[in-house]
Write a structure and sequence with these properties.
By secondary structure, the protein is of the alpha+beta class. Helix content is about 40%, strand content about 20%. The chain has 12 helices and 16 strands. The strands form 3 sheets. Strands 1, 2, 3, 4, 5, 6, 7 and 8 form an 8-stranded antiparallel sheet that branches. Helix 5 (about 255-275) packs across helix 7 (about 335-365) and helix 6 runs parallel beside helix 12. It is elongated and about 90 Å long. The two termini are about 30 Å apart. Mean pLDDT is about 80; it is low at about 445-495. It binds zinc ion (ZN). Zinc ion (ZN) binds near residues 381, 386, 409, 412 and 414.
């Protein structure tokens, strides 16, 4: 069985005095955790037990019952009337910390012994200098609410049992944000402080049948693969679904990268201007904090929107594998600060879209994500694998203009959108793995090979077979050199408002 987990974070709406209660509750929780941590340190045998037995043993040591009227280290001296579930949550938290501490201490001891043995062998006496791990000095854990400490969970409210500093009371709190999705099992909610606001985090979990490995899935001719070509501008992602036997089923163009890039570039330009106007500011102080925050949020949000669109598209078309290219290295850009930084951030965003898509795909019921070698995916024809001509609308159909929108294959007369062709090639790369095991080389090797001087004849076998080689300049630019210096640049939309960009990406659920 495979498992998908995620955390639903909900902002809370509560009267101002509640913030103090939540803080008091967390302080008490951490005191109890610290108490149990010390208790475990005093009774080392406890860590050899399993969690459930350790919990019983610790309760026996600290909790008075009719059968056990005088525990050795009574918890009631710390605070009276602590609910059983609160105590258990604290015990589990303390056990976790104690196990982590004990294993790092053990590791440190073995390393020390190894070091001393080595020194003895060499006849030297260099003392072991690494410091031993120390137990936590302060505790700042968020308090979880086990079953019994919360009830009446509705779409927009929950009732929690909270220590207010003077008594235990049930507080009703309004939750904002999205609902818990169906089909998941809910874990214990947790009150988490973020700045001066409190949030409710709820871990949710879903189990499903583990999908077969990629290589096994590829043996079935009807397995559907969703291949994604990520770009820096124009369409942020171009996805196409095809089956293993080569039938192309659907294509989707996602996101207006030009608008995102324009929006980001404008903000970066504003930062550069501000910087040129102000003098030196204090060290360790973030300049233009608001503008930077905005850039971060735009990137984050777009990456989330694009990745969920990718996964949604894959799901709608019944794909069970998602394929990306490995990221090629970032090519440094010349030009103004805003242009250089913008390029860098666009590149980072590609990595982010990949990471987000990967976990979203897995959570969407076990879609596996794979990556393939990016070499020449934009240059090869998806139907005959020959080299294509890439051009813009209205230009002659020859040569290779990096970043141009259209492509044409002189060998088989294939005409297509260049990014769609690239995404189809990405998918085929994965399928080729099963058919010709040696055809695809590891990414690192390829990169090293790329560094060979051009024309030295040392390269990739695939290329050596071809009669026509791409020009040196074009080859350096790699597959994703889409944009700079091409005709589209003039038409770039500067600073489209984020709301426009986001609304075109928004997912609509029926
Ligand atoms: Zn062709």
């Amino acid at each position: 069985m495979a498992k998908a987990t995620k955390t639903i974070r909900q902002a809370l709406h509560y009267p101002p005095q509640y913030a103090g209660y939540f803080a008091a509750n967390q302080v008490l929780f951490n005191r109890v955790v610290a108490f149990y941590f010390d208790c475990i340190q005093a009774h080392e045998g406890i860590l050899t037990l399993k969690n459930k037995e350790a919990l019983t043993a610790l309760e026996k040591l600290t909790h008075a019952t009719a059968a056990n009227p005088h525990p050795i280290m009574p918890l009631s001296e710390l605070a009276p009337a602590i609910p059983a579930m609160f105590r258990r949550a604290a015990i589990n938290a303390a056990l976790g910390s104690a196990r982590a501490f004990s294993s790092s201490l053990k590791k440190w001891r073995t390393r020390k012994e190894q070091h001393e043995a080595k020194q003895m062998k060499k006849g030297k006496k260099r003392p072991w200098s690494a410091r031993p791990p120390v137990p936590p000095r302060s505790w700042n854990k968020s308090a979880p609410f086990y079953a019994g400490l919360w009830h009446e969970r509705h779409t927009h409210s929950i009732v929690l049992k909270v220590w207010t500093g003077s008594c235990w009371s049930w507080l009703k709190i309004h939750t904002l944000g999205r609902d818990l999705p169906g089909g998941f099992q809910m874990g214990s909610p947790q009150l988490v402080r973020k700045g001066d606001r409190w949030w409710l985090h709820t871990p949710i979990e879903k189990t499903f049948e583990a999908p077969a490995k990629v290589i096994e899935q590829l043996t079935a001719a009807d397995t559907r693969i969703c291949a994604v070509d990520l770009n820096l501008d124009h369409h942020l992602a171009v996805c196409s679904v095809q089956t293993v036997d080569g039938t192309i089923l659907a294509t989707s163009f996602i996101g207006n990268g030009t608008a995102v890039s324009g929006c980001r570039k404008q903000l970066l330009g504003r930062i550069a201007r501000n910087r040129s106007q102000t003098g030196i500011i204090a060290e360790n102080e973030q300049d233009n904090a608001d503008l930077w925050a905005k850039i971060r949020h735009v990137d984050e949000q777009i990456a989330h929107l694009v990745s969920s669109r990718i996964v949604q598209f894959a799901q709608e078309n019944g794909a069970s594998i998602l394929v990306f290219e490995h990221l090629s290295t970032l090519k440094p850009e010349k030009g103004k600060y805003s242009r250089r930084s913008n390029r860098k951030r666009a590149y980072w965003m590609k990595g982010r879209i990949f990471r987000y898509s990967k976990y979203k795909a897995w959570n969407a019921g076990g879609i596996i994500t794979a990556r393939v070698n990016p070499r020449n995916t934009s240059r090869e024809c998806h139907s005959c694998h020959g080299l294509v001509a890439r051009y813009n609308q209205g230009q002659p159909q020859e040569g290779y203009t990096p970043g141009a929108a259209l492509c044409f294959c002189p060998q088989c007369q294939m005409r297509d959108h260049a990014d769609r062709n690239a995404s189809l090639r990405v998918g085929q790369r994965l399928i080729e793995r099963t058919q010709e095991p040696l055809k695809e080389k590891p990414h690192a090797l390829v990169r090293r090979a790329k560094r060979e001087p051009k024309g030295s004849g040392v390269g990739i076998s695939q290329d050596a077979k071809r009669q026509r080689r791409p020009s040196t300049d074009a080859a350096r630019r790699g597959d994703h050199a889409n944009g700079h210096g091409t005709a589209q640049r003039g038409r770039r939309r500067m600073g489209a408002p984020l709301s426009d960009i986001a609304s075109t990406l928004r997912i609509h659920f029926e």
